[in-house]
Amino acid sequence: MSKSVHLQEIPYCPDSCELFERIRDLPRAALLDSSSPHASTGRYDILTAQPWCDTVPRLVQGADERACQAYFAELKRFHLEHYHGVQQVSSDIPFCGGLLGYLGYDLGKGLHNIQSPAQSSSFPAVQLCAYDWCVIQDHLLQRATLVTQPRVGRAQRQDLLARLRQPVKRGAAGFTLTSSFASSLSTEQYREAFEQIQAYIQAGDCYQVNLTQCFSASYSGDPWHAYRALRAVAAAPFAAYLTLAEEATLLCLSPERFLSLHGHHVETSPIKGTRVRHSDPQQDAQAQRDLRASHKDRAENLMIVDLLRNDLGRSCTPGSIHVDRLFEVQSFPTVHHLVSTISGELRADRSAWELLRDSFPGGSITGAPKRRAMEIIAELEPHERHVYCGSVLYVSADGRMDSNIAIRSLLCDHGVVRCWGGGGIVADSDWQQEYQECYDKVGKFLAVLEAFGHD
After folding, report:
1. Catalytic residue among 256, 345, 375, 437
2. Domain-located, residue 455
3. N or C: at which end does the chain have fewer Cβ atoms within 10 angstroms?
4. Neighbours of 356 (CB within 10 A)
């Protein structure tokens, strides 16, 4: 039996942050944010809160490979049990309720049986919630729609409509750093890790390894103010603001899609290759040309394209996988990136859950081959990645799915804000250039938060 979803148009708001401020005090409020008032970079924004279910399958920290594999089967069972029969409402409604949250990098370590000598993380490897209403902002059609599942009654719908039309209440609590950012790796430690990776590459152990460093500082106040400031300078098409359990918050300004599923069509768009933006137009154009012509960056990108073609091959119909765009330069507010796009058709016996399971984590943030690169990362990085390099995602009640690679992400947790930056190291990488690339990617974020000042 099909289950009808209720749609009600509400006044469109060019800046979804203004709309989100009317619901963000509700439990587990989430904003999947594709655009900025200054530079529109995407079509849809998704706003939601008040998950109806607190029995979504959970994964214990440190779960082994078998438990992680079984976890995806549990998510599939939950999704079928609660959303079976929900039909696609419209191609213009990407999410009509369903599961939304993040899969952390630690889940990937479990899936690939990677043991980490770093201190074991207490932060949840996965946080997903089941939502039964959302607001879809369509920036192409300039239309906003309140979408509700059948279990949302008339009274709750009217309450939501009243809330969405009320004046915005500005929070009094600001955001302040109470210390400066410090890296988990000194310059010398980074160089030593880089040289160890080079030794592994020369020995034929791997072709590419993504090495990151973690910058952390203490803070007080409301992370929402930090997100709005970051968004103003680094708008990205796969950004997100997630209110997590135990008062933690994820601020994600990701430019990278991991996997999308619409009908049976699968798409992934890995990023490999970066140049910093310049205020001078001629310098900026030259940076684009340098990136497009870089043999190293193209080779690095191609390694990940090959890895992802292999990953998709585990879930897609044989012969359906195509590289639609190779080495496309895409420009974002702070950097230029080299982006490729691969697509395929999902097999009839597979769903979003098997697709995620068999491709996670994204190859662009591990290296190649994936499992060996992850072992080297676990050996050389002294910090946990937590949500970073995992994925913020939704799987809609009607089966549609989209997800990002959770790069350019900041985690605010128990008074500490963490921000990670890294890059892929290959045979002809230069350690100083790679070290600088970490700052090219997240230095602007750190500077924005430092500008809030210290207590």
Report:
1. 256
2. no
3. N
4. 24
Which domain range does residue 216 map to?
Answer: 6-165+175-450
441 catalytic residue (yes or no): no
The verdict on residue 170 lying in a domain is no
CA-wise closest residue to 13 among 128, 118, 137: 137
- 272 part of the active site: yes
How far apart are alpha carbons 51 and 59 in whole angstroms? 18
Q: How many domains does the chain have?
A: 1
Residue 140 burial (C-beta neighbours within 10 Å; 0-12, 13-18, 19+): exposed
Whether residue 36 lies inside any domain: the answer is: yes
| Residue in the block written with tokens 């749609």 | 7
Catalytic residue among 272, 370, 441, 444: 272
Does the pLDDT value for residue 40 go beyond 50?
no
Q: What is the CATH number of the domain that holds 199?
A: 3.60.120.10
Per mean pLDDT, which range of 34-38, 308-312, 384-388 is the poorest? 34-38
Query: Do 367 and 381 contact (CB within 8 A), yes or no?
Result: no
Residue 316 in tokens: 């897609």
For the stretch 6-21, pLDDT in tens is 999 999 999 999 999 9
Structure tokens at 302: 């191609």
* Strand ranges, E, within 198-318: 208-221, 238-243, 249-254, 257-262, 265-268, 271-276
E strand map for 104-255: 126-131, 133-138, 143-148, 175-177, 182-183, 208-221, 238-243, 249-254
Question: Would residue 1 count as lying in a domain?
Answer: no
Confidence of residue 38 (pLDDT cuts 50, 70, 90): very low
CA dihedral 65, 69, 71, 73 (to 10 degrees): -170
